[in-house]
Amino acid sequence: MRAWGALSYKEGPASQAVLVMLDSDFSSFVTVRFVGLLYLLGLLALVVGAIPTFMGANGLLEQVGVIAAVPVAGLIWRMALEGVVVVFRIAENTSELVELRKRRVQHR
Length: 108
Description:
mainly alpha, 6% strand, two-stranded antiparallel ribbon, 2 strands, 3 helices
């Protein structure tokens, strides 16, 4: 059991999710935890959106274009989410470096 303010809780995924949402200092980031889910939802939306586009295409050339566009759009979606993750990881690493620097200065 851990204590957080007036609350005590058993450690586990559910309690961690609640505590992250109650973190008013924003010391941990929620976005990185949900990127995988966002990626899968985006791919699902991409495929579901491509089906009627493929069916409504006028001719073979347009159908091939839709088939070619789906993986390209999926790759672009992944790269965009990776960019978001990189920004948050830089912020996390910067925080760790600041803490390390503070500890080194205190030991002098």
